[in-house]
Design brief:
heterodimer, A: alpha/beta, 6-stranded mixed β-sheet, 23 helices, 40% helix, 24% strand, B: mainly alpha, 1% strand, BP-dependent_transpt_permease (chain B)
Chain lengths: 588, 317
């Protein structure tokens, strides 16, 4: 802002054409490992002009974060740029010295890190940390000036009562507030370019929306060029003019975002578009006709053998099942369920407040809510991992409160969970075979040989090779671990599976694959699912009924179609509107 | 959104040949199965420090088990005062003690005492520490309160001081077992604390919850899922505690409250030699070196094992 004239001058090349603010040419980044140099980024080209916004999209390991870190020369560990150029306003950053880089960081390029929870130092006050950033960039001198600027920066980032909150510590801020602080720090020195690495991935959708709206208006106001990284195609397309799709360290497709979304050319991008739940939701809405559904089924049949996944087809295939299940008796009945936690010194906290619902046999109910809404507590009470304070849970005609000992043991075999974190849900020291057969041995099902047979059968069901039996979880990806967790849950042929954020930690393609697997298994085995998630977009694809939870209460409950087409509560409407990509018109 | 796409930002699609698609979430499991222990073994195998310390420990164990292989000279019976504090002589490579006994033979025959005390104390500490730590950490509540306070009481008394007191009261019964008991009974709380902390971390893992939801009994969950995943730091700490137990025995013997002087022990020899430190320092220094090498090799092994089991420590290097 301060050197606008200078910036415009330098933005013109000698030959009169406009010079991009950021030009990445054939960038290669490698990591030194035991197996020699491994290329994480391989020949990436990105061109970004002043005032534009660009999103890099890709799954984990695609090299998107590495590219961003290479720009500001903050590659972790043994990472190094092994080729290519990064031109910031004509200056090659790959050749910049440490001193020169220090000037670039903060003052020319601002950076907003991914995790607002761990990127603020918990022992220093917010004010101290913002002031430190300001001091480091030499924007203001003198105590008063620095403090003034800190307040200004935080106000700009959307913290209205900044002067009062300066003395507070990070733990007194919510996730969204912390992310605002980090954005404020990134923009403190009024940089020309702001790099945001998954700035909202750790936040609830409604908060995410507010933060992104704010970031957008702020960068427009200040004329900052924005480069952000995300795994969410819908979000990228909605928030950025330019899109760069990365896959295995390479750019597979780039260009104007709407064009790419409407007309994806590269097979990988096509896959991504087909698998993104936020976009699939949109398309389900769009293709209300029978013809479209049939077309979807058709394409589904064609691609079933291959690797392509279309969430739309998954959803349509499920719709048929539902019709048959509608009249079934409830598998789970929950009445007036309440859970109160006693908190030392702070009185009672009601995590679940008078919750009632029924799940008909063979159907899926989604329990949707943001963090802290009490949805996982409901799951734990249903699984009898926690006791209810009051209320009633009836599973298959049995009241959970009265079940103990042997009865409870038997009941457990009919009701199994799959948890969120694929890295925490398998014992790292037990091999896959033992993990899957643990339910069988615990419940004394069959002898050794028949258990082994059943393990093979389950591995087949979750589409994993039988050779995995003797291996350990550390060799598997998140999606594969989640499959193992599903296999373990299915070992005892349960009627009910509680899926607690079971696909939330997975990349979209893998997520789509697992959702498809879950839908297939439900059709095959007649399972009843309680699907707990924060992601409304996924719900559209998998659930028959939806209950929306807010602060421990169910605020809206209806069939999935009703909730999506005619949400009655403001909160549900907000949630729906906050699904990234909800406003994009899809050509297809 | 205003369309301000520049000419060089048009829709670009990479040729498929250059960016071939790979099957989604393909299973890449080749070679031998690996887990924490196999990884640690692979890590340890490549370190010279591991082989040096292991070789020394093996040597010490062999010496302790078969002292006859290393010396034919009796350590006690053949002493002649005329050799008092004498230098090396034929058949007596390290010279003689004040009593005229062969130093080399005494060092060789003292090994088994030191090692026995080390091993007995370590087993005792491991059993007590693991039991107390595991129950306190896993069951929590009043069990934790009782066991942890008990541990705190033992922890508040330095184990060497406690051992001095116990040994001076029971000096009549002093032998390898009693001295090990005296050291071990106050040395376990450190192990228990480490394990308890680790168990508190592990017991919240989702796989523990999954096992609970399966109906696996609490005790079986502890044995099968929680303990194996929290035992690594205990292994490290016990390796090092073996070394400190050997030192403790020497200390007690040096102070005169350890083993009776009739028992061959490095601590006893060091104690006996201190009066002539100025005139015959080698009498004190030689058994001290034996003690140091033994202790050092266990500490070195502990370090290597810790590095292998704790990836964080590895990253720091």
């Amino acid at each position: 802002m301060t050197d606008t004239t200078k910036a415009t001058e330098s933005a013109v090349r000698r030959d009169g054409s406009e010079r991009p603010i950021l030009e990445i040419k054939n960038l290669e980044v490698g990591f030194n490992t035991q197996n020699g140099l491994v290329k994480a980024v391989d020949g990436v080209n990105i061109t970004l002009y002043r005032g534009q916004s660009l999103a890099i999209v890709g799954e984990s390991g695609s090299g998107k974060s590495t590219t961003a870190h290479a720009i500001i020369n903050l590659l972790p560990g043994t990472g190094q740029v092994t080729g290519g150029q990064i031109l910031l306003d004509g200056q090659d950053l790959t050749k910049a010295s440490k001193k020169e880089m220090e000037v670039v960081r903060g003052r020319k390029i601002g950076f907003v890190p991914q995790d607002p929870m761990s990127n603020l130092n918990p022992v220093w006050s917010i004010g101290f940390q913002v002031e430190e950033a300001i001091k480091a960039n030499g924007i203001a001198t003198g105590r008063k000036e620095i403090k003034k600027r800190a307040i200004e920066v935080l106000k700009q980032a959307g913290l209205q009562d900044a002067d009062r909150r300066l003395k507070q510590f990070p733990h007194q801020f919510s996730g969204g507030m912390r992310q605002r602080v980090l954005i404020g720090m990134g923009l403190a020195a009024d940089p020309q370019l702001l790099i945001a690495d998954e700035p909202t991935s750790a936040l609830d959708v409604t908060v995410q929306r507010v933060i992104l709206d704010h970031l957008e208006s702020l960068t427009r106001e200040l004329g900052t060029t924005l480069l952000f990284i995300t795994h969410d195609l819908g979000l990228a397309a909605e928030r950025a003019e330019q899109l760069v799709v990365m896959y295995k360290g390479r750019v597979v497709e780039s260009g104007p975002s709407v064009e790419i979304l409407q007309n994806p050319q590269h097979p990988y991008t096509q896959r991504l578009v087909a698998a993104a739940p936020s976009l699939a939701s949109r398309r389900i809405q769009a293709t209300g006709s029978i013809a479209a559904a049939e077309a979807a089924m058709q394409s589904d049949a064609e691609t079933a053998a291959g690797d392509e996944i279309d969430l739309l087809a998954t959803a349509e295939a499920r719709a048929e099942l539902l019709a048959a299940a509608e009249s079934a008796p409830p598998a789970i009945t929950v009445e007036h369920l309440t859970k109160v936690y006693k908190i030392r010194g702070a009185g009672d906290f009601t995590a679940v407040d008078d919750v009632s619902f029924q799940i008909p046999k063979g159907t899926t109910m989604a329990l949707v809510g943001e963090s802290g809404s009490g949805k996982s507590t409901v799951a734990k009470m249903l699984l009898k991992l926690e006791d209810a304070t009051s209320g009633k849970i009836v599973v298959g005609g049995q009241d959970l409160a009265s079940v103990t000992g042997k009865q409870l043991f038997d009941l457990r075999s009919r009701m199994q969970p799959v948890f969120q974190d694929p890295y925490g849900s398998l014992n790292p020291l037990r091999n896959i075979g033992n993990t899957i057969s643990e339910p069988l041995s615990t419940h004394g099902v069959g002898d050794r040989a028949s258990r082994r047979e059943r393990v093979f059968e389950l591995l087949d069901q979750v589409s994993l090779p039988r050779t995995l039996v003797g291996r350990y979880p550390n060799e598997l990806s998140g999606g594969q671990r989640q499959r193992i967790a599903i296999a373990r849950a299915l070992a005892l042929k349960p009627e009910i599976v509680v899926l607690d954020e079971a696909v939330s930690a997975l990349d979209v393609l893998v997520q789509a694959q697992i959702l498809r697997l879950l839908a297939d298994l439900q059709g095959e085995l007649g399972l009843t699912y309680l699907f707990i998630t924060h992601d409304l977009a996924v719900v559209r694809v998998i659930a028959d009924h939806v209950s929306v939870m807010q602060r421990g209460r169910i605020v809206e409950a209806a069939t999935t179609d009703e909730v999506f087409e005619n949400p009655r509560q403001q909160y549900t409407q907000d949630l729906l509107a906050a699904i990234p990509g909800a406003n994009i018109e899809l050509g297809a | 959104m205003p369309s301000n796409t520049r000419p060089d930002q048009q829709h670009f699609v990479a040729p498929l040949e250059e960016t071939p698609l790979v099957a989604i979430d393909k299973v890449k499991a080749e070679g031998k199965p690996t887990n924490l222990w196999t990884d640690a073994w692979a890590d340890v195998r490549g370190r010279p420090m591991f082989w040096i310390s292991s070789a020394l420990i093996v040597l010490v164990v062999i010496v302790a088990l078969f002292p006859g292989l290393f010396t034919q000279v009796p350590p006690n019976n053949d002493c002649q005062l005329s050799n008092s504090n004498g230098g090396p002589a034929d058949g007596h490579p390290l010279g003689f003690t004040k009593q005229g006994c062969d130093i080399y033979s005494r060092i060789i025959h003292g090994t088994s005492t030191s090692l026995s005390v080390g091993i007995i104390v370590t087993v005792l500490v491991a059993v007590l520490g693991i039991t107390f730590g595991a129950f306190a950490g896993f069951y929590g509540g009043w069990i934790d309160s009782v066991l942890s306070r008990l541990g705190d009481i033992f922890f508040s008394i330095p184990y060497i001081l406690a051992a001095v007191v116990i040994m001076s009261v029971f000096s009549k019964y002093a032998n390898v077992w009693v001295i090990s008991l005296a050291i071990g009974i106050f040395a376990w709380p450190a192990t228990a604390r480490v394990l308890r902390a680790e168990i508190l971390r592990v017991k919240n893992a989702d796989y523990v919850m999954a096992a609970t939801a399966l109906g696996v009994s609490r005790f079986r969950i502890l044995l099968r899922h929680v303990l194996p995943n929290s035992i690594a730091p205990v292994i490290v700490i016990t390796t090092i505690s073996l070394a400190s137990a050997i030192v403790a025995e020497a200390t007690l013997s040096f102070l005169g409250v350890g083993l009776p002087s009739s028992t061959m022990s490095w601590g006893n020899d060091i104690s006996a030699a201190q009066l002539d430190l100025r005139t015959a320092p080698q009498v004190l220094i030689l058994p001290s070196i034996a003690l140091s090498i033994t202790v050092l090799s266990f500490i070195m092994l502990g370090e290597v094992v810790r590095d292998a089991l704790d990836p964080k420590a590895r990253a720091r290097r």
